[in-house]
Amino acid sequence: MRWGVEPICAVLSEHGVKIAPSTYYDARARRPSPREISDEQWKSIITATWHAQRRLLGARKLWLRLRRDGHDVARCTVERLMRELGLVGVRRGQRKRPTDLEVRETRPADLVDRHFARMRTDQLWVADFTYVWTWSGWVYVAFVFDVHSRRILGWRAATSMTTPLVLDCLEMALWTRRREGALDFTGITHHTDAGSVYTSIAFTDRLLEERIDASVGSVGDAYDNALAESQIGLYKSELIHHEGPWRDLDQVGAATASWVLWFNTERTHSSIDDLTPIEAEQVDYSRAEPLERAG
Question: pTM to 2 decimals?
Answer without folding.
Answer: 0.76
